[in-house]
Design goal:
Number of strands: 0
Organism: Hymenobacter psychrophilus
Keywords: Signal
Shape: elongated
Structural class: mainly alpha
Helix content: 55-70%
Distance between the termini: 65 Å
Protein name: Secreted protein
Largest sheet: none
């Protein structure tokens, strides 16, 4: 019984981990989705540098 509970718990944890990892869409099939994915996964410094109201 304990082994079954442990197995179910491990399966649920693995499912959660795998579902939280997102894969980049294929740019050849959907360029707009690929561009949106890249925008969402930029680092904050890169986003700051791309803003038009940067003070020098």
């Amino acid at each position: 019984m304990k082994n079954l509970r442990l197995l179910v718990l491990l399966a649920a944890g693995a499912s959660l981990i795998l579902s939280s990892c997102t894969q980049a869409p294929d740019p050849e099939q959907d360029p707009n989705a690929d561009a949106a994915y890249k925008r969402d996964h930029r680092t904050e410094q890169y986003r700051e540098a791309q803003r038009s109201n940067v003070n020098y």
